Amino acid sequence: DGGITQSPKYLFRKEGQNVTLSCEQNLNHDAMYWYRQDPGQGLRLIYYSQIVNDFQKGDIAEGYSVSREKKESFPLTVTSAQKNPTAFYLCASSMGGGPDTQYFGPGTRLTVL
Amino acid sequence: KQEVTQIPAALSVPEGENLVLNCSFTDSAIYNLQWFRQDPGKGLTSLLLIQSSQREQTSGRLNASLDKSSGRSTLYIAASQPGDSATYLCFAWASKLTFGTGTRLQVTL
Fold first, then answer.
1. Does A80 touch chain B if contact means CB atoms closer than 8 Å?
2. Is residue B76 scored above 70 in pLDDT?
3. Which pLDDT value is given to residue A99?
4. Which of B46, B100, B101 sits opposite A102 (nearest CB)?
């Protein structure tokens, strides 16, 4: 089955700890994205990558880091510098690096205690 | 700065009704506009994508229109069903990638 997987579905961490969220796709898509969703707000773009070994900051990149060493994988690290990390995190991919249909994973709900 | 607004924030209709969801955007220089559906606690499912050169797209009971000059898109759902209950999000791809805050739809029996 082709698609985007995110793991884990639920994640709990203590305040001050870094945590890495996984996103893998087998759609052979060039571009991948990370969004954050908070209650009552739309999705906000954290980082995106149009091609392997390249990525750009979105609107709310502070306190987050990413890597794109493989086409299939785009992990997101939530660092201790992120002031309010508790949220629902969604990963997406699209075929090209330009405007194209985005396909989303099931999301990871991160709770920082 | 692109702002994408969806009104109403919530909507409840009886089964069988036709309904319209609205999406407004401030930057008319969009490449495309996409409508998504999100069920509680789940990821997003793409419904329709309208390229900037197009005026509408249709899929089954869904029809989405785009008017760049007025900065508006509408999603029309015909003969609504309880299974249509979800949050509907519009997304505008311009110089920035911007989601609306969504319309939470409930279709009652």
1. no
2. yes
3. 81
4. B46
Beta pairing partners, A59:
none
pLDDT in tens, A51-97: 999 999 999 999 999 999 999 999 999 999 898 999 999 999 999 86
How many A×B Cβ pairs under 8 Å?
A: 53
Are B16 and B82 within 8 A, CB to CB? no
- For residue A111, which amino acid is it? T
* Tally of CB atoms within 10 A around B93: 21
Peptide bond connecting A39 to the previous residue in cis, omega within 30 degrees of 0: no
What is the predicted pLDDT for the residue at A2? 66
Of B62, B82, B76, give the one whose Cα is nearest residue B13: B82
Would you give the DSSP letter of residue B41?
T
Question: Closest partner residue to B100 among A35, A42, A100, by Cβ?
Answer: A42
Query: What average pLDDT does this structure show over A16-42?
Result: 93
**Per-residue exposure over A29-59, b if at least 16 CB sit within 10 Å of its own CB, e if not:** bbbbbbbbbeeeebbbbbbbbbeeeebeebe
The first and second tokens of residue B12, run together, are 């409840």
Residue with tokens 């709770």: A111
**Residues A47 and A34 sit within 8 Å (Cβ to Cβ):** yes
Tokens of B18: 């036709």
Q: How many CA atoms lie within 13 A of A35 on its CB side?
A: 22
